[in-house]
Structure formats: structure tokens, C-alpha cells
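Input/output pair, single chain:
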Amino acid sequence: MKKSIYGLTIEQLTDFLIENGQKKYRAAQVWDWLYKKRVLSFDEMNNINQETIDVLDENFAIQTLEQNVKQVSQDGTVKFLFKMHDGNLIETVLMKFPYGHSVCVTTQVGCNIGCSFCASGLLRKNRDLDAGEIVGQIMKVQEYLDGKGEDERVSHIVVMGIGEPFDNYSNLMNFLHVVNHQKGLSIGARHITVSTSGLTEKIKDFADEKLQVNLAVSLHAPNNELRSSIMKINKAFPIEKLMDSINYYLEKTNRRITFEYILLRDVNDHVKEAEELGRLLADKRHLSYVNLIPYNPVDEHGQYQRSEPEAIKSFYEALRRKGINGGVRLENGTDIDAACGQLRSKQIKKTKKQPVGE
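Output:
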């Protein structure tokens, strides 16, 4: 199966064309057709000579994703289940906000991080997505928006779908360079957020990239005992190591970090945890923002429930008293399979239950 040309940065495409006897300037022309005119066939690139078209067609596909399921929420959120060339399924979510259209992309088929509350980890990691499959999600969502005929475009990206982005680092970086480039989708770096569960060395590498892309860290607990009980990755990268890498990031970039904190009823949602979190972040509170996330229950993780509204309010207020900025995340798509990974998991189970021949 040919890989998607979406996976190449413009520099990589330029090098490929030169190595294959084509003119350097063709790369910018091809990108214009891909990302501005958004064609789905090389043959539509009518200002490019046939020899170059043949070289591209021989080596690359354009879109390698196929829509399998689409769910539309009452609030305008759209969840897509895409099938890849090898039959694997991935989720992508389009969310509409007053400031624009944000897309949440997936970077891996399944997840090995092993958070005990998360639907994404219900199915173990099968493989990494290549950069073309990650960019392809944005292009499929943009195709959906183009089809509405309302001149809407993807303006924001969150890399928070299935998988750990920093466990697929090189493909992640190619993706970021493609969607951010002015000749590509031209999505501003400050409109892009990458979320990690805490791969400490990769956080440092990311700091050294000197990008303006936002960083979010899935924290979910203020101490090692509690965090290890719900996030097994904490055993490999305990909070002390995590905070060391975060301090390195802040020193190198001087950019604010968002700490994601899913509130689980009677697990991590007490005022004492909020106060402990405040102490943990005290020395970096000027560059910290805590995103409190109401939990979306998952059938397979029945031991966890959503925190009561009063507990959420008390937690938030305790953080504020400690001088920590934060807020409660606006929820999207609660009337569809809201938790990341739920739609994929349900679809795979449904397929397995089908009698042979259906």
C-alpha cells in the first residue's frame, strides 16, 4: 500500500522530487493543490507536467483514510471513525467553538499507557500512525466542512486522541510541520496543543524544538501513590521526574503549560487533593493552567464515576485559593460516544459479534 503524500513536509517533498529528476519548484505547486485546492487525485493538478504526476502517482496516495462511522451531536460535535488501509479503526473529533473549529486527532492505533479510567486503553496499541494518516484526519474533517459549503475551515488542533503522541515522536513532528506551514494548512502553532501523559525525555526534546505549539500534561493526581494507582506510567516516570522535565520545558520556552486533571468521584476530587496540587505547582503557578475535566463514564471502567457538581466547584475554589489558574472544561458531544476511544471500542466489539458471512 502506498503511503499518503500528506506525510511529507515540504522540505521532504522537495528532496524527493529532486532525487527523482523533477524540478524543485514543483513541491510548492503540489502543496498548493493538496492543501489550498484540496484535490484528491494527482491527475487534477493541471499545471504540473505528466512526468511529475506519474512519479507522484507511482510512489504515493493522497488520502488513505475511509469514513466508517460518523456521529453528530446536538451541540455540533462530530465524531468520525476512520478505517485505514490495513483495516484498523481510529477516532477523530470535530468540535465547534465560538473561536473556530477544533479537531482532536489520534496518533496511535490503541494505547499502551494504561490509564485505568480511559476508554482509549481498552484496546492495546497495535501500531503507530504515520504522519500521512495523522494529517489525513485533518483533511477528512476539512473535506466534511467543505461539503457543507459554508466556507468553514479547521482553525485549531488538539493532539489528544487515542494513543500517546510522544510515543510516536517523529511522525508527530512531521504532522506539526505540515499543518503549521504557511504553504500547507497554515494553522497557527499557538492554535495547536499536544497532550502527553508524561514521557519526560520527550518533553525535554519538545522544548528543544523551539516551536510555539502548546503543551498539555495529563496529571490527574498530585502525588505518586494516587497517580500510580490510576496511571501506570507514573511508575516509570514518577511526579519528581515529570516536574523536572516540566521545569526544563518552562526554562527553555517560557510558555504556559496546561495540566489536565480528570475528576473521579471519591478518588482524586477532594479538597485535600486540590490543596496538594496547589502546593505541587506553587513554584510554577505563573505558567500553569489546570484544566478540570468532568469524567465521561466508560462501561468497562465501572469503578469510576463522574464527580458531583459540588465537589468540582470545591476543588476549583481550593485551587484558586492556592493561586492556581484553572477552569472546568466545556463538554462536547455528551449525547454521543463522548469518551475518547469509546466509539472505536464499540465498533470493534460489534464487528466481532457479527455472524460469519455478514
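The longest strand covers residues 89-97. The first helix runs from residue 10 to 19.
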